[in-house]
Amino acid sequence: MLSAGLLSAILIVALKPLLVRYALARPNARSSHTIPTPQGGGIAVVGAVLVTMALAFSVLGLPEHFFKAFVILAGASMFLAIVGAVDDIRPLPAGLRLVLQVAAVAAVVVTSGLRILPDVVPLAVEQAILILGGVWFVNLVNFMDGLDWITVAEMVPVTAAIAVLGPAAGLPMSILVTFVALALCGALLGFAPFNKPVARLFLGDVGSLPIGLLVGWMLLQLAGTGTIAAALLLPLYYLTDATVTLLRRLARGEKVWEAHRTHFYQKATDNGFSALAVSAHVFGLNLALAGLAAMTLVWRSAAVQAAALAAGLALVILVLRLFSRPRSKVVR
Description:
Mean pLDDT: 91
Order of helices and strands: HEEHHHHHHHHHHHHH
Distance between the termini: 41 Å
Shape: globular
Number of strands: 2
Strand content: under 5%
Oligomer: single chain
Helix content: over 70%
Structural class: mainly alpha
Largest sheet: 2 strands, antiparallel
Number of helices: 14
């Protein structure tokens, strides 16, 4: 974790002059920033994760089947990083982006061999559902990465929780999942000082897309043990904000593949919340969701799973309602 964080920060310092020159994000009507800011910090984050994992395999001698699984995951992540880098510099057509994302997610899902749904559901049908869900998760992480520190506030608690809860859930590849979670958590912490409000650097699609894939893979591993409630609770804020926003935009007949400023976290800044306040609320919410996820692993009865999901959803709705109201009416 420490090595990934240091490497991420070193790579950012080394790459920033190039990013300033070739990957400058200029503000527009849909932006949350007001001055031109370099993007592409995700190159350092994803690079730090992959290098740290390569070192872990070479030093620790992890099992061969772990290595095979990670090679596929790393390859798919690098592929999405390349797609994101190209899109950051020269936007790709929405259809092409979607096809490439499906290919990357399908490679991870099909080779995982995991079953989430009851055996009565045909394998092909289940894999199609998982691929669809994986593509949505990759995209929602990208959609939600639109404010200083928000991805750090979301993914640091999620990855830290997975690192802790993975072994308790009895994951078949718990060591690999824990190492990937710790590496990503550390790499994001190394990125955090550069992205704190007011950000001097953004992740860009080169970072948000592969981060979505890496975290989606970890959640798939968690769900594959039967702990679906925990796998839903950990990313529940991102899932709810992005999904509700998508459904609202579809209902209004909007082009959902185009950039916009209608997510709840974006409305919060319009309603008087600072970027730091939004991220602090998201961070605190995720700590609570991680606690509920842990509870579902300690007490595995259906009643506890349902109660934890209901409590988690209630907390998320409370934060979304808070974000959607003018701050002057919320804080007295």
